[in-house]
Amino acid sequence: MRNVPGLSATVANAAGGLREPMTTSAKEAGWRRRDYVSKTDIYAYRNCPYTFHLVESGQISRDEAYSPISVSLMEDGIAFEDGILADMPVTSKQLDDPDLRKLADYVYNVETIVDHERKLIGRPDGIDLRAHAPIEIKNRFDVKPMDSLELAFYWRLLEPMRENHDVAPYGLVELVTGSYAWVPLKPSHFKKVDALIDGVRRARRDGVQPLPCRCFVCLERPEVLAVFEEMSDVGMIIGIKNARAEALRSVGISTVSAFAEADPHDVARLTKAAPGPTLSAKFVLAAQPHARALRDKQPVWLTDERLDHDGFIAVDLEYISGLGTYWAGSSANEIFMVGALLQQGGETQLFQAICYERKDLAAALRELAALLRKHKTLPIYTWNGESADLRYLERAARRHRVSLMSAVNARHVDLFRFSKTVVCLPIVSHELKSVGAFLKIGRDGDLSDGFAAVGIFHELCATRGKKKRKALADQLLRYNENDLRALAAAADFFRTRERPTGT
Length: 503
Hints:
Blueprint: E1 11-13, H1 39-47, H2 49-56, H3 68-86, E2 90-91, H4 100-103, E3 106-108, E4 113-115, E5 120-122, E6 126-128, E7 133-137, H5 145-157, E8 170-174, E9 180-184, H6 187-206, H7 222-230, H8 242-250, H9 256-261, H10 264-273, H11 281-296, E10 300-301, E11 311-319, E12 335-344, E13 347-354, H12 358-374, E14 380-382, H13 389-399, H14 405-411, E15 412-414, H15 415-422, E16 423-424, H16 432-438, H17 450-462, H18 466-496
Parallel strand pairs: 1-2, 1-3, 7-8, 11-14, 14-15
Antiparallel strand pairs: 3-6, 4-5, 6-7, 8-9, 10-16, 11-12, 12-13
Helix pairs in contact: 1-2, 1-6, 2-6, 5-6, 10-11, 16-18, 17-18
């Protein structure tokens, strides 16, 4: 992160807009929605092209396109941004006033900006006048990949206002800590933004066919569920989404079977000559085993490697991550549930703890450490733990002074990483929930993902009634247990290579 000197000396521009054609109201500019693309458009399209198409074609409303959790996040983010902007000083000068640059380097509360040549429209949270670079305000602790794309979009939008075209592209992100992150914008960011802009316009012009997707909208759409049932669209293949799938369809490779049987070098040659991304022969060769798994509805084993154990401890955490500012908890109490499942000699032992406060988390970590010490020869399994659970666990153990990580690190196996190297399953994602469904592990309860679990934890912390609190706590416990049992089933499968026979 780069500190930006003097950034606190800002000037907010709350006066009217700029001279045409730079900024104006959409109505005054004769803006027709289908012709112009905004940051919100590319975000929605990137999230789910088919949902974007449903909204744009009037089949669902914009309100119906977002889950309650997503709405809560957006509302909190908007409130945070509004609070920051409300504290900014105000000037009557407009952005095209030559005296404005003498007063400050940065402006906020700018009017909507329209680039009629590129047909782009938007309103960055602020502008760095030194290079007409965008500033975005985010209610979180770090910069996410989508932030770079947003800044690249706004850099494009501000291009006609920029006097110095030799400056290296960049943007600034103000984080919840009050610090600013300096974000260099790379050619790859602009390439992705341009592809998203093209995708938005193509979706408006031609529509979007139902795609394999598990977003809030698609999860309940019968036409999308039919795509999952058929397991035939090329977009079902892991690693082939949106732009890559469209590139393959454009050269006549629209099904899983066609991709599985295609010559990798022919695919590379065809996609290189077509619009959109080029799929290298190496990429195609690596993706074809999963295509064969989907086509044949059977696992395709990549190696002979198996797990070797006579028992194990499965560990799964639920955590708030960067959402601590939205919901109950804080960066000092990121983990709100600790779960472990011991399986040995045909017996299982389940340990779970909901952590409302720091003391609850400290106690849960000590119990987990005691469980690991008691069974010091058993391997410890997580799902994607190297990228997620173990990082949170290490921070929490250090913060609460619990001796835990030496035992974990010595015996840990990340089954997500293990599975990717040994097998391609006939499922459309590497999510533990999908693996559990393939292994016939039913899920009890209606929580769909970790985001929903965070929302339930927030509601639990805000609820006072004993009956309601118990019901919410039971939801969280069931969700965590579902993941632990799916993780245990995966561990057994990677040892025996046999699917369970249960329902």
